[in-house]
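Page header: ASSEMBLY MODEL / two components / 1358 residues total.
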Amino acid sequence: MSMEALFNPRGVAVTGSVSPGKLGNVLINRLVEGGFEKVYALNPKAKGLDGVPGFASAEEISGPVDLVVIASPAPTVKDVLEDCGKKGVKAAIIITSGFSEAGNAEGEEEIKQVAKKYGIRFTGPNCAGLVNTHSRLLATLEAAPPKGHTALISQSGAVGGNIMAWAHEQGLGISKFISYGNGNDLNELEFLKFLKDDPETKVIAMYLENIKNGREFMQVLKEVTPVKPVVIIKSGRTSTGQRATLSHTGSMAGADAVYDAAFRECGALRVETIEDMFDLCKGFANLPPVQGRRLAVVTNSGGPGVMAADKAEEVSLNVAEPSPEMTSVLKGILPPHAGVKNPIDITVEGTGEEYSQVLTEVLKEYDAALALYIGTPYLKALPVAEGIKRAAEMSGKPIVSTVLVGCDVEESVEFLKAHHLPNYVTGERAVKVLARMAEYHEYLTNKPELSEIPEQKAFLPGTGPVLEPDGMALLKENGIPVPEFRFAQSPQKAVEFCRSVGYPVVMKVVSPEILHKSDFGGVILNIGDDQGAEKAFDQLKHAAAGRDFRGVVIYPMLKGGREVILGLTRDVQFGPVVAFGLGGIYTEVLKDIVLRVAPVDKKGAQEMIRSIRTYPILKGIRGQEPADLDALADAIVNFSRLPFLYPDLEEADLNPVFVFPKGVLVGDVRLVRSGSINK
Amino acid sequence: MSMEALFNPRGVAVTGSVSPGKLGNVLINRLVEGGFEKVYALNPKAKGLDGVPGFASAEEISGPVDLVVIASPAPTVKDVLEDCGKKGVKAAIIITSGFSEAGNAEGEEEIKQVAKKYGIRFTGPNCAGLVNTHSRLLATLEAAPPKGHTALISQSGAVGGNIMAWAHEQGLGISKFISYGNGNDLNELEFLKFLKDDPETKVIAMYLENIKNGREFMQVLKEVTPVKPVVIIKSGRTSTGQRATLSHTGSMAGADAVYDAAFRECGALRVETIEDMFDLCKGFANLPPVQGRRLAVVTNSGGPGVMAADKAEEVSLNVAEPSPEMTSVLKGILPPHAGVKNPIDITVEGTGEEYSQVLTEVLKEYDAALALYIGTPYLKALPVAEGIKRAAEMSGKPIVSTVLVGCDVEESVEFLKAHHLPNYVTGERAVKVLARMAEYHEYLTNKPELSEIPEQKAFLPGTGPVLEPDGMALLKENGIPVPEFRFAQSPQKAVEFCRSVGYPVVMKVVSPEILHKSDFGGVILNIGDDQGAEKAFDQLKHAAAGRDFRGVVIYPMLKGGREVILGLTRDVQFGPVVAFGLGGIYTEVLKDIVLRVAPVDKKGAQEMIRSIRTYPILKGIRGQEPADLDALADAIVNFSRLPFLYPDLEEADLNPVFVFPKGVLVGDVRLVRSGSINK
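Prediction written out in full:
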């Protein structure tokens, strides 16, 4: 199996010059220094390096060679692969650049063909190499990371190297580092799938700058995240500037928000900075699951405890007070002047034993704990670290710590690390980790069902812009509730229809040349009688003078509902995406919009509804009846199916949608046909 | 002068046992190790320590002694002061605890009296000591910090020690460390004033857990911040839980928001975490002022550049593209495949000289720059650091850097530090610093005028709860516009007044026993004629049956304004505080409220208006006419004067206030008399 050859090779050949300072030289030294034993130099002059023997051809090597690390110039790569293929090499790390990234797609295709011929799988070209700390394989020019259980896949070799160089100081161990460069053969998806089953990897960290196929990526993430957590940095806005072509509703959320939505939907955890990545991976690699949001803060210093508790509330952890029973237990353990609310302040005189007992007790009713210890340089911190360890063992629950200062602080931090107790430089950073871990646990316990992609049903009606009555009919046909409506082409019909709909009514102009009806005086509200209806028809016809006037559409006046908006767009990476937000002037100003990749199932729709900031308004505040969130969720589900049912539907906006205490009704519809210029 | 004696003493006496492990011993060793020469041990047995001579009385010491550091038990402190006073000691650092913090207020008062008698000024008791790195005075049990230009005042000795212990790793130099413990004599205010004029201090960092007198603190801050920046950590919510007694409007903003408001108003910069404090102080201590928000990001790696630019936008820096002229200058410097938008990507091959040239050029049109360098372990970073230095010198403008990884990274970071070029571990942290520094500069260039406290004018009308017509009259009298209103006590008068106000009108019940009128059916809108008016009067009278019905108040129907709310409360620490927010259901859900300590001047009022998230709605979006923000600011100014004019005004809520394109009008008023139970 090629992955085995790549990560656990029996022998490794390295191409490239072995002269000092040359890449072949550096790579061989890396491998040897890392402790890998079966290394062979492969170069035309068959030059070796110190104890590493040199060969002109892989076939001359007597032992098994599973992997070749290629750093020789681009024109040589094809022949190297040919030679190695004959030897039976199964995998290659092609560090050499000068292929498609430099305009040489042809050369890249050639090496792909040769590799295919011999069944060689490869990472690169133009990559920064690969590391497996558990097999002592250090096939990279980047810094050697400490051994551990976080796998790192980086689209940028430099950023990956940066992370590895920093890992020791940050206390994070690496299981595997993978740079895939141009990703011609093996890419982030293959590696994700591989790492899912890698026993030495507990958490996968990814640094991404772009994604080729969003749907495929999501598919793989959905397979991986139930098995182990995936933490992602995706660098943002500027590189994706060209994607800012979302529908009006979608674009309010920002182009980059699609990535947020997609990752969240797949249970992957997006973080903003490399420090956040370190923190979170350290948590996942070391702690038992965070199965709830109740957090106890145990501290020996009031202020820092409060600062951590504040941050905890900000990230939606619950720093509730202990139960009366727990309170009396704590009072039994601690001196009278200690604080037994939460944060629990065991005071500056708190001992390691008190930390141990208090933590063990509180974890009987909390889901996780933060142990904060602000020492002084002349007091020993090690007993506190030992106390934390005892409590972690007794409780089996996650404890994060912030142990700072003390004459033995380094020893204490090493002690904690050795016992898989992650220590963070501030309580704030520690609680952020617990919150994200709780989020992951919530995902696992409430995973969305896999929505089936609906099959194509038809094309949009008509040929030009979709007229409002046609749009309303289409929504109705697909289970999205619309008000009663009539399409009238004469004043007589208008009056007749107004009567049948029942006054007061709304009348809107229908014309393929008038899309922004309101800006155009094309909407008349609150028409109360026949005379008003006739007048309104005339007025709308007049407003459309010189344009293709098709008639008017008539609705009853809708009242009393809360307004929301739904949008639909096709994202370059992710395809159809649904946007949902509270309607009206506030949405635009507050950008209170949530996105989700379509199709959306009911659970997903409910999550969308709950996740906007103004959700309490829908739920009903100040004694208001709650809006019919069930009907709204159904409408979102059905709306999210439209781009699959109608492949020529490019964009859609339902703005507003009225949500009543019972039922929902669409107030206006705009459907845009693909290729249409009338956006 | 006592401060001179405290920070630059000619000689220091230390009390407390000199036996190994005892406080006197540790303190003397600290002082000696720190390089302070004139140290004397002061203890009953006249025991010295190594080269430090011991004395039983200060009077026996021959040389001058300006300062005594007291670590002997509480009962001895009085006598020590007496003895030292006779010797002419001017200052004391009282580390000893066991005074008011332990219930011994009497003992504390005693030592105060002795100190006063001899003109000794002191910090403590129960403090962690004091450091002046510039006079080699290390009079503390905490870690010795590196020398530099940031002064640290910490209310918690442990947290202060923690910060000093961490300062070396974080690359921050300390000028002075001050712990004031119980703050009986010298406290944070005195030290702030002292540090304002301390030539060795460029920036003041404070860690606070509570403030005794908010107004006085603000007064001092307002004197200090124009001279040098003050960076504050104030630990939050939990410790101030008892303060959650703000008016309804104010409480929506959260109790801790008063501190935010007060600090902001005084130009002090509040930060959340110790890491943020380090970062910001490093910026202030080393960089020239950040005189605007235009930021150039110069990077050799795309993704991290984008991540930094994203963060920059989030913190309101302007990462605009360079001008066309600058673009062609950059194209002349850089190779064709470099990116000359912003971030400017000089590519992985970028040299130190390119960094230097590009930074120097862009700083001709940007206010600040971030130099991002993601090296590889086998490339040298020092030329980049040198390039950054040249650019900083040439431009005279602020450059922050993130130089990470490289075979000489430590050397590079040291080089930057030596040349006062702050380096941050991530670009995100670096740009956050620039944003806060820009905020400080904005404060300096647009300082609020000092508002005079208005003098008392009268008491609130009546005796019980203030009735609505009385409240409206009071507002009107004080320059806060109210609609025309009439108070009617009979149906006949009601009809007469409705006519004179002009239909349609609003009618509300007036009763000292009905405060939440709406909940009570006590408000009738849109009354159109005499008949309606009579009916409404009856209905309101009926609604008030069994209560003290005084009549009704009549207003014209107000339409078309945007609704805002104004609140006023008396904060325990800061006294009268004004709250402002957009009105309606959204305020409650979105907590879009801003606070400011009263009285508020016009500039302050304008800043309040601008700083709510929904400000664009007031300014007018979608072609709406802007609301009359000038009239609104005037109303806020006049409203903020009320608690001074009427000393018995405890709370007030104006909800809603209608802001029209021309003028404002108060829609409802609630004034609460102090001591009133009808809250």
